[in-house]
Protein backbone atom coordinates (compact mmCIF):
# COMPACT_ATOMS: atom_id res chain seq x y z
CA UNK A 1 0.00 0.00 0.00
CA UNK A 2 1.61 3.25 -1.16
CA UNK A 3 0.48 6.36 0.72
CA UNK A 4 -0.51 9.27 -1.52
CA UNK A 5 -1.66 11.54 1.32
CA UNK A 6 -0.09 11.58 4.76
CA UNK A 7 -1.01 13.61 7.85
CA UNK A 8 1.58 13.61 10.59
CA UNK A 9 0.64 15.22 13.91
CA UNK A 10 -1.47 17.87 12.15
CA UNK A 11 -3.18 20.66 14.06
CA UNK A 12 -5.27 23.46 12.58
CA UNK A 13 -6.41 26.26 14.85
CA UNK A 14 -8.52 29.23 13.77
CA UNK A 15 -8.10 32.40 15.80
CA UNK A 16 -6.12 32.87 18.97
CA UNK A 17 -6.44 32.94 22.73
CA UNK A 18 -9.69 32.02 24.45
CA UNK A 19 -11.65 32.27 21.18
CA UNK A 20 -9.36 29.87 19.30
CA UNK A 21 -11.15 27.02 17.49
CA UNK A 22 -9.20 23.78 17.30
CA UNK A 23 -10.70 22.52 14.05
CA UNK A 24 -8.18 19.70 13.55
CA UNK A 25 -6.23 18.25 16.46
CA UNK A 26 -3.26 15.93 16.26
CA UNK A 27 -4.32 13.96 13.18
CA UNK A 28 -1.95 11.30 11.93
CA UNK A 29 -3.13 9.09 9.08
CA UNK A 30 -2.22 7.71 5.66
CA UNK A 31 -4.50 7.55 2.63
CA UNK A 32 -3.37 4.92 0.15
CA UNK A 33 -3.05 5.35 -3.58
CA UNK A 34 -6.15 4.00 -5.34
CA UNK A 35 -8.42 3.71 -2.32
CA UNK A 36 -11.69 5.41 -1.49
CA UNK A 37 -11.23 6.89 1.95
CA UNK A 38 -14.18 8.23 3.93
CA UNK A 39 -14.11 10.90 6.61
CA UNK A 40 -17.30 10.89 8.66
CA UNK A 41 -18.37 13.11 11.52
CA UNK A 42 -21.09 15.44 12.73
CA UNK A 43 -21.23 19.09 11.71
CA UNK A 44 -18.23 20.99 13.06
CA UNK A 45 -16.10 17.87 13.60
CA UNK A 46 -13.36 19.27 11.34
CA UNK A 47 -13.91 17.19 8.19
CA UNK A 48 -13.88 20.05 5.68
CA UNK A 49 -10.85 21.60 7.31
CA UNK A 50 -9.05 18.26 7.12
CA UNK A 51 -9.56 17.92 3.35
CA UNK A 52 -8.85 21.59 2.69
CA UNK A 53 -5.43 20.96 4.22
CA UNK A 54 -4.82 18.45 1.40
CA UNK A 55 -4.99 21.00 -1.40
CA UNK A 56 -3.55 23.83 0.65
CA UNK A 57 -6.79 25.82 0.88
CA UNK A 58 -6.00 25.76 4.60
CA UNK A 59 -2.50 25.67 6.09
CA UNK A 60 -1.63 23.46 9.05
CA UNK A 61 -0.88 25.33 12.28
CA UNK A 62 1.58 22.56 13.12
CA UNK A 63 2.47 19.10 11.85
CA UNK A 64 3.03 17.96 8.27
CA UNK A 65 0.64 17.34 5.38
CA UNK A 66 2.28 15.38 2.59
CA UNK A 67 0.61 14.81 -0.80
CA UNK A 68 2.14 12.78 -3.60
CA UNK A 69 5.75 13.62 -2.82
CA UNK A 70 5.15 17.23 -1.73
CA UNK A 71 5.06 18.69 1.75
CA UNK A 72 1.96 20.83 1.21
CA UNK A 73 2.33 22.56 4.54
CA UNK A 74 5.59 24.20 3.43
CA UNK A 75 4.75 25.13 -0.20
CA UNK A 76 4.17 28.71 -1.33
CA UNK A 77 0.94 29.63 -3.17
CA UNK A 78 2.88 29.53 -6.45
CA UNK A 79 4.39 26.11 -5.70
CA UNK A 80 0.92 24.82 -4.78
CA UNK A 81 -0.54 25.58 -8.22
CA UNK A 82 0.83 22.55 -10.11
CA UNK A 83 -0.08 20.29 -7.19
CA UNK A 84 -3.65 21.59 -7.24
CA UNK A 85 -4.09 20.43 -10.83
CA UNK A 86 -3.45 16.92 -9.49
CA UNK A 87 -6.30 17.31 -7.01
CA UNK A 88 -9.90 17.69 -8.19
CA UNK A 89 -12.67 18.77 -5.86
CA UNK A 90 -16.46 18.36 -5.84
CA UNK A 91 -18.76 20.32 -3.57
CA UNK A 92 -22.17 19.88 -1.98
CA UNK A 93 -23.59 22.93 -3.76
CA UNK A 94 -21.95 22.02 -7.11
CA UNK A 95 -20.40 25.53 -7.53
CA UNK A 96 -21.22 25.77 -11.24
CA UNK A 97 -21.26 29.03 -13.21
CA UNK A 98 -24.96 29.59 -13.86
CA UNK A 99 -24.36 31.79 -16.93
CA UNK A 100 -22.09 29.25 -18.65
CA UNK A 101 -23.17 26.13 -20.51
CA UNK A 102 -22.35 22.66 -19.22
CA UNK A 103 -19.49 22.37 -21.73
CA UNK A 104 -18.10 25.78 -20.73
CA UNK A 105 -18.25 24.84 -17.04
CA UNK A 106 -16.30 21.64 -17.66
CA UNK A 107 -13.82 23.47 -19.90
CA UNK A 108 -13.20 26.25 -17.37
CA UNK A 109 -10.20 24.72 -15.50
CA UNK A 110 -8.65 23.79 -18.87
CA UNK A 111 -9.03 27.38 -20.09
CA UNK A 112 -7.34 28.62 -16.89
CA UNK A 113 -4.55 26.06 -17.42
CA UNK A 114 -4.00 27.41 -20.93
CA UNK A 115 -5.25 24.48 -23.03
CA UNK A 116 -6.02 25.50 -26.64
CA UNK A 117 -9.60 25.39 -27.94
CA UNK A 118 -9.18 22.17 -29.92
CA UNK A 119 -7.77 20.18 -26.99
CA UNK A 120 -10.41 21.63 -24.68
CA UNK A 121 -13.21 20.57 -27.01
CA UNK A 122 -11.91 17.01 -27.28
CA UNK A 123 -11.40 16.67 -23.51
CA UNK A 124 -14.83 18.11 -22.68
CA UNK A 125 -16.52 15.70 -25.11
CA UNK A 126 -14.67 12.79 -23.50
CA UNK A 127 -15.62 13.90 -19.98
CA UNK A 128 -19.29 14.50 -20.81
CA UNK A 129 -19.45 11.05 -22.32
CA UNK A 130 -17.89 9.55 -19.19
CA UNK A 131 -20.49 11.18 -16.92
CA UNK A 132 -23.36 10.46 -19.36
CA UNK A 133 -24.20 14.06 -20.24
CA UNK A 134 -23.10 14.38 -23.89
CA UNK A 135 -26.60 15.51 -24.83
CA UNK A 136 -26.55 18.35 -22.28
CA UNK A 137 -23.36 20.07 -23.47
CA UNK A 138 -25.19 23.27 -24.41
CA UNK A 139 -27.63 23.32 -21.48
CA UNK A 140 -27.33 25.81 -18.62
CA UNK A 141 -27.04 24.47 -15.05
CA UNK A 142 -30.56 25.75 -14.24
CA UNK A 143 -31.96 23.27 -16.78
CA UNK A 144 -30.38 20.30 -15.00
CA UNK A 145 -31.48 18.12 -12.07
CA UNK A 146 -29.35 18.03 -8.91
CA UNK A 147 -27.78 14.73 -9.92
CA UNK A 148 -26.94 16.06 -13.39
CA UNK A 149 -25.39 19.20 -11.86
CA UNK A 150 -23.18 17.06 -9.65
CA UNK A 151 -22.15 14.98 -12.66
CA UNK A 152 -21.05 18.23 -14.34
CA UNK A 153 -19.16 19.07 -11.13
CA UNK A 154 -17.41 15.71 -11.27
CA UNK A 155 -16.58 16.10 -14.99
CA UNK A 156 -15.08 19.53 -14.26
CA UNK A 157 -13.07 18.15 -11.33
CA UNK A 158 -11.65 15.43 -13.58
CA UNK A 159 -10.80 17.77 -16.46
CA UNK A 160 -7.06 18.08 -15.97
CA UNK A 161 -6.48 14.38 -15.17
CA UNK A 162 -6.04 14.67 -11.40
CA UNK A 163 -4.74 11.76 -9.32
CA UNK A 164 -6.85 12.63 -6.29
CA UNK A 165 -10.51 13.61 -6.01
CA UNK A 166 -11.80 15.33 -2.87
CA UNK A 167 -15.58 15.05 -2.51
CA UNK A 168 -16.99 17.32 0.22
CA UNK A 169 -20.56 16.19 1.00
CA UNK A 170 -21.00 15.60 -2.73
CA UNK A 171 -24.38 13.90 -2.31
CA UNK A 172 -25.80 15.72 0.71
CA UNK A 173 -28.06 17.92 -1.40
CA UNK A 174 -29.46 14.98 -3.38
CA UNK A 175 -32.37 12.59 -2.89
CA UNK A 176 -31.58 8.91 -2.16
CA UNK A 177 -31.97 7.68 -5.75
CA UNK A 178 -29.83 10.46 -7.22
CA UNK A 179 -27.32 9.89 -4.42
CA UNK A 180 -26.93 6.28 -5.57
CA UNK A 181 -26.38 7.43 -9.15
CA UNK A 182 -23.67 9.91 -8.15
CA UNK A 183 -22.00 7.42 -5.79
CA UNK A 184 -22.00 4.91 -8.65
CA UNK A 185 -20.22 7.46 -10.82
CA UNK A 186 -17.62 8.09 -8.08
CA UNK A 187 -17.02 4.34 -7.92
CA UNK A 188 -16.34 4.35 -11.67
CA UNK A 189 -13.97 7.30 -11.27
CA UNK A 190 -12.05 5.12 -8.83
CA UNK A 191 -12.20 1.78 -10.63
CA UNK A 192 -11.97 2.91 -14.28
CA UNK A 193 -9.77 6.00 -13.97
CA UNK A 194 -7.80 4.89 -10.91
CA UNK A 195 -8.21 8.06 -8.84
CA UNK A 196 -7.76 8.05 -5.09
CA UNK A 197 -10.95 9.53 -3.63
CA UNK A 198 -11.42 11.21 -0.26
CA UNK A 199 -15.09 11.44 0.63
CA UNK A 200 -16.38 13.70 3.40
CA UNK A 201 -19.81 12.83 4.65
CA UNK A 202 -22.09 12.72 7.67
CA UNK A 203 -23.95 9.70 6.24
CA UNK A 204 -22.80 6.20 7.09
CA UNK A 205 -24.76 4.90 4.06
CA UNK A 206 -22.30 6.75 1.81
CA UNK A 207 -19.38 5.15 3.65
CA UNK A 208 -21.04 1.72 3.46
CA UNK A 209 -21.66 1.93 -0.27
CA UNK A 210 -18.49 3.64 -1.41
CA UNK A 211 -15.50 3.52 0.91
CA UNK A 212 -12.70 1.04 1.54
CA UNK A 213 -11.60 2.64 4.79
CA UNK A 214 -13.07 5.29 7.03
CA UNK A 215 -11.92 7.75 9.69
CA UNK A 216 -14.47 8.93 12.25
CA UNK A 217 -13.89 12.52 13.41
CA UNK A 218 -15.15 14.13 16.59
CA UNK A 219 -14.11 17.56 17.93
CA UNK A 220 -11.20 17.81 15.49
CA UNK A 221 -9.75 14.40 16.31
CA UNK A 222 -9.83 11.11 14.46
CA UNK A 223 -11.40 8.90 17.12
CA UNK A 224 -11.60 5.71 15.09
CA UNK A 225 -10.22 4.48 11.78
CA UNK A 226 -10.19 1.22 9.87
CA UNK A 227 -11.57 -0.93 7.06
CA UNK A 228 -15.26 -0.16 6.63
CA UNK A 229 -16.38 -3.73 7.43
CA UNK A 230 -14.35 -3.76 10.66
CA UNK A 231 -15.66 -0.39 11.78
CA UNK A 232 -19.25 -1.53 11.12
CA UNK A 233 -18.80 -4.88 12.84
CA UNK A 234 -16.76 -3.68 15.85
CA UNK A 235 -17.36 0.03 16.40
CA UNK A 236 -15.22 1.16 19.33
CA UNK A 237 -16.55 4.64 20.02
CA UNK A 238 -20.02 5.84 20.92
CA UNK A 239 -20.04 8.26 17.95
CA UNK A 240 -19.18 5.40 15.60
CA UNK A 241 -21.91 3.21 17.07
CA UNK A 242 -24.43 5.97 16.44
CA UNK A 243 -23.33 6.36 12.81
CA UNK A 244 -23.46 2.59 12.28
CA UNK A 245 -26.93 2.47 13.87
CA UNK A 246 -28.30 5.12 11.51
CA UNK A 247 -27.11 3.18 8.50
CA UNK A 248 -28.17 -0.31 9.44
CA UNK A 249 -31.48 0.29 11.22
CA UNK A 250 -31.43 -3.43 11.97
CA UNK A 251 -31.86 -3.24 15.75
CA UNK A 252 -35.20 -2.51 17.41
CA UNK A 253 -35.50 0.63 19.54
CA UNK A 254 -36.55 0.17 23.21
CA UNK A 255 -40.15 1.10 22.25
CA UNK A 256 -40.23 -1.44 19.43
CA UNK A 257 -38.73 -4.08 21.72
CA UNK A 258 -41.44 -3.50 24.32
CA UNK A 259 -44.09 -3.87 21.61
CA UNK A 260 -42.47 -7.04 20.26
CA UNK A 261 -42.26 -8.49 23.76
CA UNK A 262 -45.96 -7.84 24.28
CA UNK A 263 -47.05 -9.35 21.00
CA UNK A 264 -44.75 -12.39 20.63
CA UNK A 265 -44.44 -15.37 22.94
CA UNK A 266 -40.95 -16.36 24.10
CA UNK A 267 -37.60 -14.82 24.89
CA UNK A 268 -36.34 -11.98 22.72
CA UNK A 269 -32.72 -11.90 21.65
CA UNK A 270 -30.77 -10.05 18.96
CA UNK A 271 -28.06 -12.06 17.22
CA UNK A 272 -25.35 -10.47 15.07
CA UNK A 273 -25.02 -11.84 11.54
CA UNK A 274 -21.50 -11.60 10.15
CA UNK A 275 -19.64 -13.37 7.42
CA UNK A 276 -16.82 -14.91 9.44
CA UNK A 277 -18.40 -15.40 12.81
CA UNK A 278 -22.13 -15.78 12.53
CA UNK A 279 -23.72 -16.77 9.24
CA UNK A 280 -27.50 -16.90 9.48
CA UNK A 281 -27.48 -20.61 8.50
CA UNK A 282 -25.24 -21.44 11.45
CA UNK A 283 -27.43 -19.41 13.81
CA UNK A 284 -30.64 -21.14 12.71
CA UNK A 285 -28.97 -24.57 12.89
CA UNK A 286 -27.92 -23.91 16.48
CA UNK A 287 -31.55 -23.39 17.44
CA UNK A 288 -32.83 -26.32 15.39
CA UNK A 289 -30.27 -28.72 16.95
CA UNK A 290 -31.71 -27.98 20.39
CA UNK A 291 -35.33 -27.96 19.29
CA UNK A 292 -35.68 -24.26 20.02
CA UNK A 293 -38.09 -22.38 17.79
CA UNK A 294 -36.80 -19.00 16.67
CA UNK A 295 -39.35 -16.70 15.05
CA UNK A 296 -37.67 -13.75 13.33
CA UNK A 297 -39.48 -10.65 14.52
CA UNK A 298 -37.10 -7.86 13.49
CA UNK A 299 -33.78 -7.42 11.74
CA UNK A 300 -31.83 -6.45 8.72
CA UNK A 301 -28.91 -7.88 6.80
CA UNK A 302 -27.02 -5.76 4.34
CA UNK A 303 -23.80 -6.04 2.40
CA UNK A 304 -20.66 -4.10 3.22
CA UNK A 305 -17.88 -4.57 0.70
CA UNK A 306 -19.89 -7.50 -0.68
CA UNK A 307 -19.85 -9.24 2.73
CA UNK A 308 -23.05 -9.88 4.70
CA UNK A 309 -23.61 -7.89 7.86
CA UNK A 310 -26.50 -7.13 10.21
CA UNK A 311 -28.58 -8.73 12.92
CA UNK A 312 -31.73 -10.72 13.55
CA UNK A 313 -34.06 -10.32 16.51
CA UNK A 314 -35.79 -13.57 17.38
CA UNK A 315 -38.54 -14.65 19.73
CA UNK A 316 -37.37 -18.01 21.15
CA UNK A 317 -39.71 -20.69 22.41
CA UNK A 318 -38.79 -24.13 23.77
CA UNK A 319 -37.44 -25.71 26.95
CA UNK A 320 -35.78 -22.97 29.06
CA UNK A 321 -32.67 -25.15 29.53
CA UNK A 322 -32.46 -25.74 25.75
CA UNK A 323 -32.77 -22.00 25.08
CA UNK A 324 -29.97 -21.30 27.57
CA UNK A 325 -27.78 -23.94 25.90
CA UNK A 326 -28.46 -22.57 22.42
CA UNK A 327 -27.60 -19.03 23.51
CA UNK A 328 -24.39 -20.22 25.20
CA UNK A 329 -23.44 -22.03 21.98
CA UNK A 330 -24.22 -18.93 19.86
CA UNK A 331 -22.09 -16.74 22.12
CA UNK A 332 -19.11 -18.90 21.22
CA UNK A 333 -19.16 -17.58 17.64
CA UNK A 334 -21.23 -14.39 17.50
CA UNK A 335 -22.65 -11.57 19.61
CA UNK A 336 -25.98 -12.12 21.33
CA UNK A 337 -27.88 -9.38 23.07
CA UNK A 338 -30.66 -10.36 25.45
CA UNK A 339 -33.09 -8.13 27.25
CA UNK A 340 -33.40 -9.08 30.93
CA UNK A 341 -35.41 -5.92 31.65
CA UNK A 342 -38.16 -7.21 29.35
CA UNK A 343 -38.37 -10.57 31.08
CA UNK A 344 -41.40 -9.66 33.18
CA UNK A 345 -43.26 -8.29 30.15
CA UNK A 346 -42.64 -11.19 27.81
CA UNK A 347 -45.39 -13.72 27.35
CA UNK A 348 -44.26 -17.30 27.83
N1 LIG B 1 -12.15 29.91 8.41
C1 LIG B 1 -12.55 29.60 9.66
N2 LIG B 1 -12.46 30.49 10.67
C2 LIG B 1 -12.84 30.18 11.92
N3 LIG B 1 -13.35 28.98 12.28
C3 LIG B 1 -13.48 28.05 11.32
C4 LIG B 1 -13.09 28.30 9.95
N4 LIG B 1 -13.33 27.18 9.21
C5 LIG B 1 -13.85 26.27 10.08
N5 LIG B 1 -13.94 26.79 11.32
C6 LIG B 1 -14.42 26.09 12.53
O1 LIG B 1 -13.71 24.87 12.65
C7 LIG B 1 -14.56 23.84 13.11
C8 LIG B 1 -14.55 22.68 12.12
O2 LIG B 1 -15.20 23.11 10.91
P1 LIG B 1 -15.32 22.20 9.61
O3 LIG B 1 -16.06 22.99 8.58
O4 LIG B 1 -14.01 21.65 9.28
O5 LIG B 1 -16.23 21.02 10.17
P2 LIG B 1 -17.09 19.95 9.35
O6 LIG B 1 -16.94 18.69 10.12
O7 LIG B 1 -16.68 19.95 7.94
O8 LIG B 1 -18.54 20.52 9.51
P3 LIG B 1 -19.71 20.71 8.40
O9 LIG B 1 -20.14 19.32 8.05
O10 LIG B 1 -20.75 21.49 9.13
O11 LIG B 1 -19.07 21.44 7.27
C9 LIG B 1 -15.93 24.45 13.32
O12 LIG B 1 -16.05 24.81 14.68
C10 LIG B 1 -15.87 25.69 12.44
O13 LIG B 1 -16.73 26.69 12.94
TrEMBL record:
SMART domains noted in UniProt: AAA, NIL
GO molecular function terms attached to this record: ATP binding
Residue ranges annotated for the ABC transporter domain, each copy included: 5-244
Entry annotated with the keyword Nucleotide-binding: yes
Keyword Cell membrane: yes
One Pfam family per UniProt: ABC_tran
UniProt KW keywords: Amino-acid transport, ATP-binding, Cell membrane, Membrane, Nucleotide-binding, Translocase, Transport
Xref: InterPro entries: AAA+_ATPase, ABC_transporter-like_ATP-bd, ABC_transporter-like_CS, ACT-like_dom_sf, MetN_ABC, MetN_ABC_transporter-like, NIL_domain, P-loop_NTPase
Superkingdom, natural source: Bacteria
PANTHER family according to UniProt: AMINO ACID IMPORT ATP-BINDING PROTEIN, METHIONINE IMPORT ATP-BINDING PROTEIN METN
Name used for this protein in its record: Methionine ABC transporter ATP-binding protein
Lineage start: Bacteria, Bacillati, Actinomycetota, Actinomycetes, Micrococcales
Amino acid sequence: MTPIIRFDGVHKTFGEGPRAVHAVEDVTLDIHEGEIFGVIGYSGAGKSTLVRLVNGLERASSGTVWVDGHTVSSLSEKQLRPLRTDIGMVFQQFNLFSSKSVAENVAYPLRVAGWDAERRRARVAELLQFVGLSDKAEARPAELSGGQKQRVGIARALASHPKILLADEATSALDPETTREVLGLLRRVNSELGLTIVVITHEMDVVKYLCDRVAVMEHGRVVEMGAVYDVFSHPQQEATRRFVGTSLRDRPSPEVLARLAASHPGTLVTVAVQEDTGSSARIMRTFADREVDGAIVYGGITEIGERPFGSLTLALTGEPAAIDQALAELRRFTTVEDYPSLAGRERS
